[in-house]
Design goal:
Number of strands: 0
Distance between the termini: 30 Å
Shape: globular
Structural class: mainly alpha
């Protein structure tokens, strides 16, 4: 299978997962804050932190797994463009408190999730 196929398969799974998290979050938690974007960014950050450290420091993995998981799945799951646009809209609407919460939440939580993923991978 070609490299692009592995990326595409992972991307489809990531994008569908992102859609499901988004619809569930709006239905069951909140529609007034982009919580789904924050959740997928944090989860995706944990996954990529864990996966890349685990497969480079702990186990041997076929390079196609990186294409499938890190580039495809995490690329389809995480939503930096959505995060940026939602932040822009909060700014335009004058929601400065939500804007700051969104920026700090996505950046601090996502970075923390990468670090946590790396720690967990190294513990295995």
């Amino acid at each position: 299978m070609r490299d692009v196929t592995w990326v595409a398969l992972g991307g489809v799974a990531g994008a569908v997962s992102r859609f499901l998290v988004g619809t569930w979050t709006v239905k069951h938690l909140t529609a007034s804050f982009p919580l789904a974007t924050l959740l997928v960014n944090v989860v995706g950050s944990f996954i990529i932190g864990f996966f890349l450290v685990w497969t480079t420091e702990r186990v041997f993995a076929d390079p196609r797994w990186r294409l499938l998981i890190a580039i495809g799945f995490c690329g389809g799951l995480t939503t930096y463009s959505s995060y940026a646009f939602e932040s822009f809209k909060m700014y335009e609407q004058g929601n400065l408190k939500l804007l700051i919460l969104n920026i700090v939440g996505n950046n601090l939580a996502a970075l923390s999730a990468v670090l946590l993923g790396a720690v967990v991978a190294r513990m295995l």
